[in-house]
Specification:
CATH superfamily: Isochorismatase-like
Helix content: 25-40%
CATH class: Alpha Beta
Number of helices: 7
Radius of gyration: 16 Å
Distance between the termini: 16 Å
CATH architecture: 3-Layer(aba) Sandwich
Shape: globular
Order of helices and strands: EHEHHEHEHEEHH
Strand content: 5-15%
Amino acid sequence: MPRFSRDLHGNVPDESVAVLLLVDVISDFEFPGGEQLLTHAAAMLPRLTALKSWARQNGVPAVYVNDNFGRWSSDFRHLLDHCLNDGVKGEPIARALAPLDGDYSVLKPKHSGFYGTSLELVLKYLGATSLIITGLTTDICVAFTAADAYMREYRLWIPSDCTAAADARHHQAALDYMKRVLDAEVRPATDIDLQAFVRSGFNLNGQS
């Protein structure tokens, strides 16, 4: 995907063939079923924080693709502030995965990170051809985002240990579907030689 200019008026200064997407990880979990999802999200947290740290060290941009909680006037900073400072269930997750300087964010109104957002344009200017899709939930927003990415011909890696759903059966079924239909790599991050991943041009098959 060609870059039409060096960046989006200075707003997208990075360039990388791979981009890490963090889907709906900033959440208060104050909704029906939130406690059950939070249990699985907490189990995922150590691997996802490690993967995000690795991405930052290796120049892989991180894009937070987050639900707007139905508030069309919300912005990502307000959502983050709510999750960090209002005593909500999701505070530990938000605190561990809070964006750092240089991370990007996109608010989405629906399930897919591409629907009604600037994500496609951001990825184009980053020069991305491979997406590492992580976060919540595997069977809903991660799967919808992955399907839209597949139709845009991105190479996909959905690390099974960096995604979660409220029901472990739904998590596994979604991973199986994305592997079969979307040609996604779904091996856990712990099974991937991440340095070889970088050396091969972010190709999990080891081919440039």
